[in-house]
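JOB MANIFEST
job_type = single_chain_structure
chain_count = 1
residues = 132
[input]
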Amino acid sequence: MNGNTPYAGLPGETGAGQRAAADVPDLSSAQKRLLHRDVSRIAARTREFLPSEYVVDADVSSGLTGPQVTVAVRPPIGHAVSAGFTPEMDEGATPEEVITADERNEVARGLAASAALQVKQAVSDGVRPTGK
């Protein structure tokens, strides 16, 4: 039974629970540039929604299933928030954008809202209302 599961690995080639190298997409340099550009656009769009006290950063790394994208926001007070996902990459194809404009805007809005909520929750008891 264990030999039939994809998590058993290939004897002498792939360890149990690991993916074969052929299963992980290999990105061209053009695709890598596009991915980095699109991730930078998400970070820039997130910065537009937030005051300058918030720190926004983005990272592209290699994971078991291909490239992993992470965009994080550190609010001035409260916990940091992040969005991480694996973009769908077509091998050999060089699209004009890896992450569509709608996806970039959705991630940026969600991160900005989450970061603002963290600040609100952190100071909710410490702020006295100015009027009623």
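[summary]
The mean pLDDT is 81.
The helical segments are 29-49, 101-123.
exit_status = 0
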